[in-house]
Amino acid sequence: MQENTTEMDNQILSLLNEMKPISLDEMSSIRLMNRLDTKYVASKQQLVQLLGLLRDKYYVQQIKDMRICPYRTTYFDTEDHKMYMQHHNKHANRLKVRVRTYLSDGDLTFLEVKRKNNKKRTKKKRMEVESLEGSARTEGAEEFLRKKTKGMEFKDLHPVVQNYFQRITLVNYGKTERLTIDFNVQFTNFETGLYRDTDNLVIIELKRDGNIFSPVCSILRDIHVHPSGFSKCCIGMALTDKSLKQNNFKERLHYIERVNGRTLDVDRREAANS
């Protein structure tokens, strides 16, 4: 049986409060040469283990006295779900278009385009917009979208899925790697009206200098957390829309059920307004 989610969250916060803080400005000054990104999926129990092992080796980012920060992201796609299918079919070159709101920072909102190339490198470009609803009206947004997607316009896209999650950001004392840790991830599908949360799931992304030894890689391996690709956009769509092709995501979907010890039911809920 899984431990109570609130109890686990309290343990996580308690461990974070034992760590030295680092400010957003200090974090922004860190530059990783030859950056390599690796994703992992884990449980909250494994996250508690991880934080216990890292608390005297890593800083935790603190924004306005918050060490756990909330985010809301809305992903866009074409009518035929072109971007979803690019990922599902394992195209080497693919992109995602999203609007992300940083709820801990006065609802600061960005239009973002993420591109992954055939060398497995991901590049993200973004511009600030007034809100989710106002993103298309923001001066320069149409041109930004057209340029960064190589031809797409807002009229070609519509919102498909929205997620809400909480994020922890850690950086090692040597400032050669950064960890983002997302949990309490919830999805709402604009097309089906279905909502789903992921309870005990944790998504970890390691961003590190590829030229320097990574202290956390062996720690993750020791607690049986291994590299595993995970797209919050695509998994959120697959969880909330069974009409989509999802053969290549079944392993991730089964993991979510295993880590929660049950089948996660969906219910109907309207997407939150930004």
Can you offer a commentary on this structure?
The chain is of the alpha+beta class and 274 residues long. The chain has a single domain (5-268), classed as Hypothetical Protein Pfu-838710-001 (Beta Barrel). It is built from 8 helices and 12 strands. Strands 1, 2, 3, 4, 5, 6, 7, 8, 9, 10, 11 and 12 form a 12-stranded mixed β-sheet that branches. The longest helix is centred in the first third of the chain and has 12 residues, at 5-16.
How many alpha or pi helices?
8
- Low-confidence blocks of residues: none
Principal-axis shape equals: globular
Q: Helices and strands, in N-to-C order?
A: HEHEHEEHEEEHEEEEHHHE
CATH class, please?
Mainly Beta
CATH topology: Hypothetical Protein Pfu-838710-001
Q: Architecture, CATH level 2? A: Beta Barrel
**How much beta, percentage-wise?**
25-35%
What is the number of domains?
Answer: 1
Radius of gyration, Cα only, in angstroms? 18 Å
Secondary-structure-based class equals alpha+beta
Mean pLDDT: 91
